[in-house]
Design brief:
Blueprint (H helix, E strand, L loop, with lengths): L1 H27 L4 H36 L1
Helix pairs in contact: 1-2
Length: about 70
């Protein structure tokens, strides 16, 4: 499980970098709907990664608590 979480965190980090680059371009060309759509898609992917990571963390936390009791 740890490797998968690390992989998702890396993907999320890479997506944030890509989003930042697109946002910089978008600031110079605010009417470029292609850039806006690309940013939205990346935001959705970041949200999916974040949700997956949180779900795995909660699951691991529950398993840990079971071991303690």
């Amino acid at each position: 499980m740890a490797e998968n979480s690390i992989d998702k965190q890396k993907v999320r980090h890479d997506l944030k970098i890509a989003r930042t680059k697109l946002l910089e371009q978008f600031l110079n060309h605010p009417k470029d709907t292609r850039l806006a759509l690309s940013i939205k898609i990346i935001n959705d992917q970041i949200a999916n990664c974040t949700e997956w990571i949180r779900t795995k963390e909660k699951s691991a936390e529950k398993e840990f608590r079971k071991l303690l009791h």
